[in-house]
């Protein structure tokens, strides 16, 4: 089950749940995301960008459900 959310600012998404992981791209503020998972500390979310097959790890502080 996924949870609908949105980016609260322009934010990069990454290959893993850390700023040391490769940045794959970025989304603009207001972009709809579908959260699939969280890291163990809840500080990162694994999400798909709505309307695409693109997914990655987003810092949870910039995502609101």
Structure description:
This protein is mainly β and 65 residues long. It has one domain: Roll (SH3 type barrels), CATH 2.30.30. It is built from no helices and 7 strands. Strands 6-5-4-1-7 form a 5-stranded antiparallel β-sheet, with no helix packed on it. Strand 5 (44-49) and strand 6 (55-59) form a beta hairpin. The radius of gyration is 10 Å and the shape is globular.
SSE order and pairing:
Layout: E1 3-7, E2 11-14, E3 23-27, E4 32-38, E5 44-49, E6 55-59, E7 63-64
Number of domains: 1
Q: Tell me about the largest β-sheet.
A: 5 strands, antiparallel
- The top-level CATH class is Mainly Beta
Q: Structural class of the helices, strands and pairings? A: mainly beta
How would you spell out the order of helices and strands?
Answer: EEEEEEE
- CATH topology descriptor: SH3 type barrels
Q: What is the number of beta strands?
A: 7
Average of the residue pLDDT scores: 97
Supply database-style keywords.
52% strand; single chain; two-stranded antiparallel ribbon; mainly beta; 65 residues; five-stranded antiparallel sheet
């Amino acid at each position: 089950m996924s949870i609908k959310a949105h980016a609260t600012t322009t934010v990069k998404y990454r290959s893993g749940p850390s700023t040391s992981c490769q940045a794959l791209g970025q989304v603009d503020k207001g972009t709809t995301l579908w959260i699939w998972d969280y890291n163990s500390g809840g500080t990162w979310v694994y999400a798909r960008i709505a309307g695409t097959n693109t997914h990655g790890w987003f810092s949870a502080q910039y995502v609101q459900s």
